[in-house]
Write a structure and sequence with these properties.
Layout: H1 11-14, H2 22-36, H3 42-47, H4 58-63, H5 94-97, H6 100-114, H7 121-131, H8 142-160, H9 173-184, H10 195-201, H11 209-216, H12 222-236, H13 246-257, H14 266-281, H15 283-289, H16 296-318, H17 321-327, H18 330-343, H19 348-365, H20 379-401, H21 433-458, H22 461-483, H23 501-519, H24 535-565, H25 573-593, H26 599-612, H27 623-639, H28 649-661, H29 673-680, H30 685-691, H31 706-710, H32 715-722
Helix pairs in contact: 12-13, 12-14, 14-16, 14-18, 18-19, 18-20, 19-20, 20-21, 21-22, 21-23, 22-24, 23-24, 23-25, 24-25, 24-26, 25-26, 25-27, 29-30
Protein name: Zn(2)-C6 fungal-type domain-containing protein
Organism: Clonostachys rhizophaga
Keywords: Metal-binding, Nucleus
């Protein structure tokens, strides 16, 4: 045993290192391991600086920056895969495995979650065999998958391309919050709010699941649903893209697999109901083309039944509107489009316009009006583009024809145009891509024409020549564009029997309606100029009016051709309004020029309108146009020398007019017969109406002059704003 060091030892001997004690060595190793496990903050990791792991760390305090730990800049290294050794499982104790209480508890759990009431071997084998086919039934709703895909694409676009944000979004609360965040933590890039976040925020407002299940209970039988779907895609959809044909698979799965519905399925269930609703209104065309109806009396009865069924589908679908608004997915856009299509014949400038505006707002919320990020175009991208351009075209057309402001400016849209490479249609149906793009182009030309006409109305004499020249150029552009369209199968092929015959007729009616829309505004123009003053303007006005009158005659002839070859629909807004606008234009020309040139074509058009007015148009706002036509034509015929008293054919015309005043199922009251008879037998119309306030007859049909004829209530305003 060594003693203490002597006084005479050397310095080297004094400073000889002493081995550390075991306790100190263990503490040092623990401190070293702790130091190595220190987590670096995002700022130090990005700048590759040493971080002491504090919250906040010393370097972030010194640099006056926010210290956060999100591992956003942490490198992920691929670790080599080490095969796991095959460790034998613990042996099962038969006594505990086959315990009676354990098995009884398991059976109770199975009965609770699977509705299997009997756990016999045969029943359990049937359940096990059906598990393979029922795997899809427990999968998440396709709506949620589409919503996630939408979130990913829109979120990536906003995150990767923040400079591509529209100018108006730079003034939003969300963008300002993002700017503050960038000031505080410039290295942290948080994506914008997605659709899923919005749905989660509105989740307390969603209805219970039984609302969707109750709506789906109104689905027709599978065989009837298949027929209605065929009618929808073959007849109802024409030159638009309301719904892609994947909905057929969803409906088929509903009938075959009986998948439990949740509130997330509200958009496609509502869309399916509106598909049934719209196709029910056109069912009479499919039946007529099969030769099932021979007389008009046979058609009227099922038509009333069709209207009742369509209304029940519509009301059930509208009960889910709050859920559609809360979810706000692209399929909600489709549902609102179809609601607008159904209400378009009834109230185009009111209810239908509001449905389209809602659809536009939801589409904008889903960034459907913006160009998708780069990458290969998929089926879903193509469907989104077609849905957007469909709702854009429908909303634009209603706003133009009925004097409403546009829901979105063209300068705010940069979405990709539909592609003909990916066709979201069944192979057994003809591709309608060309017709759909032509319908969009026609609507935009009509919008340009409206702007040119408004410029003419507002222009003073020095600038009138330039405004008139612009309107004439648009008219010529319309003609040239129409001549360049495909002439076989698509667009301008009006050969009866072709697969797109009805769709092409509708496109031609829209083309002629654009000419009518341009020229009819100048029929009642009362401006007078000297012969040498503004000759170009007078020549332009006459050219536009002549093209307008030619298109009016062609529109009536096209409606007659469609009625002869296929049948006119009692629910088609395009057919009814095109024919009505044409007859109104010809009546206006007869009023201003005192000509009898268009007498026969006016009568032909009025007869076609009466054929179409027995359906949903009976109570529509467009009915006012038909009433004005009746009054105008009666006054015109009287001013040309006919007897002012009704008799023979005149009385029959009056009876037809009275029939139009009553809706389906309505019967004239007995007291209505008295003023009718008094008026017929030389009584004063004024006296009859004063004695019977319950009946509103046509005002004073005794003709005086064409000035009185032109003073029919609301006629000029009707030409300027209402008809389309």
């Amino acid at each position: 045993m060594s003693g203490p060091p002597e006084i005479g030892t050397t310095p080297d001997d004094r400073h000889t290192p002493v081995p550390p004690q075991p306790e100190r060595q263990g503490a040092a190793m623990a401190a070293e391991r702790k130091r190595k496990k220190t987590r670096a903050c995002d700022g130090c990791r990005r700048l590759k600086e040493k971080c002491n792991g504090g919250t906040p760390c010393a370097r972030c305090i010194k640099a006056d920056r926010q210290c956060i730990f999100t591992d956003a800049y942490r490198r992920t290294r691929a670790r080599p895969t080490v095969p796991k050794p095959n460790i034998p499982a613990d042996p099962i104790d038969p006594k505990s495995f086959f315990d009676v209480d354990r098995i009884r508890n398991l059976e109770t759990i199975v009965k609770h979650y699977t509705n299997v009431q009997e756990c016999s071997p045969a029943t359990l084998e049937e359940v096990i065999s059906s598990l393979g086919s029922d795997k899809e039934s427990v999968a998440p709703s396709p709506y949620l998958e589409n919503l996630r895909n939408t979130e990913d694409s829109s979120g990536d676009a906003r995150t990767k391309y923040p400079a591509s944000l529209p100018a108006y979004e730079e003034f939003s609360h969300l963008d300002f919050t993002h700017q503050i965040q960038q000031k505080l933590a410039p290295d942290l890039d948080t994506p914008y709010a997605s659709a899923t976040i919005n749905v989660a925020a509105a989740e307390p407002l969603l209805s219970r699941t039984f609302v969707v299940q109750d709506a789906a209970s109104l689905f027709p039988p599978a065989e009837v649903a298949t027929i209605l779907l065929d009618i929808f895609f073959n007849i109802s959809q024409t030159n638009y893209f309301y719904v892609d044909e994947r909905i057929q698979h969803r409906i088929s799965e509903f009938y075959t697999q009986m998948t439990p519905l949740t509130i997330a399925d509200a958009p496609w269930v509502c869309t399916a109901l509106m598909v049934f609703c719209v196709s029910t209104q056109f069912a009479h065309l499919a039946q007529k083309n099969k030769g099932r109806y021979e007389t008009s009396e046979e058609v009227n009865v099922p038509s009333a039944i069709d209207d009742a069924f369509a209304l029940s589908f519509y009301r059930k679908a509208t009960s889910m509107i709050p859920d559609l608004l809360a979810i706000g997915c692209p399929q909600s856009v489709q549902a609102f489009i179809l609601m607008g299509v159904y209400s378009l014949p009834l109230d185009p400038s009111g209810l239908a316009s509001r449905y389209y505006a809602i659809a536009i707002k939801i589409a904008i919320h889903n960034n459907m009006h913006l160009k998708a990020p780069g990458g290969p175009k998929t089926y879903d991208h193509e469907v989104r583009n077609r849905i957007w351009w469909t709702v854009y075209t429908l909303d634009r057309r209603v706003c133009i024809l009925h004097g409403r402001p546009a829901s979105i400016q063209r300068s705010d849209i940069n979405a990709n145009l539909p592609s003909n490479c990916i066709e979201p249609q069944s192979a057994k149906r003809v591709n309608t891509y060309h017709n759909m793009m032509a319908q969009k182009s026609l609507t935009e030309i009509m919008e340009d024409a409206r702007d040119a006409i408004l410029a003419i109305k507002k222009s003073k004499k020095p600038k009138l020549r330039d405004a008139a020249k612009k309107a004439l150029n648009i008219n010529q552009t319309l003609k040239s564009w129409w001549e360049r369209l495909p002439q076989e199968t698509f667009c301008t092929d009006l050969t009866p029997g072709q697969p797109l015959f009805r769709s092409n007729i509708h496109l031609a009616l829209t083309y002629h309606l654009t000419h009518i829309f341009i020229g009819r505004s100048f029929i009642f123009d009362s401006s007078h100029f000297e012969p040498d003053d503004l000759y170009e303007w007078v020549n332009t006005r006459n050219t536009l009016i002549q093209d307008c009158l030619k298109s009016a005659v062609n529109s009536i002839q096209l409606c007659q051709t469609l009625n002869d070859e296929f049948g006119l629909s009692k629910s088609s807004y395009t057919e009814f309004t095109s024919c009505c606008a044409a007859v109104m234009t010809l009546v206006a020309q007869r009023i201003t020029t005192e000509t009898t040139e268009f007498n026969d074509i006016c009568d032909q058009g009025l007869a076609l309108l009466k054929m179409m007015s027995g359906g949903v148009f009976t109570k529509s706002s467009e009915k006012r146009g038909l009433e004005i036509l009746e009054m105008a034509l009666v006054k015109l015929s009287m001013s040309q020398g006919d007897s002012p008293f009704l008799g023979g054919a005149g009385y029959n015309e009056f009876r037809n007019w009275v029939t139009l005043q009553a809706g389906p199922g309505e019967v004239l009251r007995p007291q209505h017969a008295s003023p009718v008879m008094e008026w017929t037998y030389n009584s004063s119309p004024g006296e009859a109406s004063s004695q019977h306030d319950g009946l509103s007859l046509m005002p004073d049909f005794i003709p005086t002059t064409f000035a009185d004829l032109a003073s029919l209530p609301g006629l000029e305003n009707y030409f300027q704003y209402s008809m389309g």
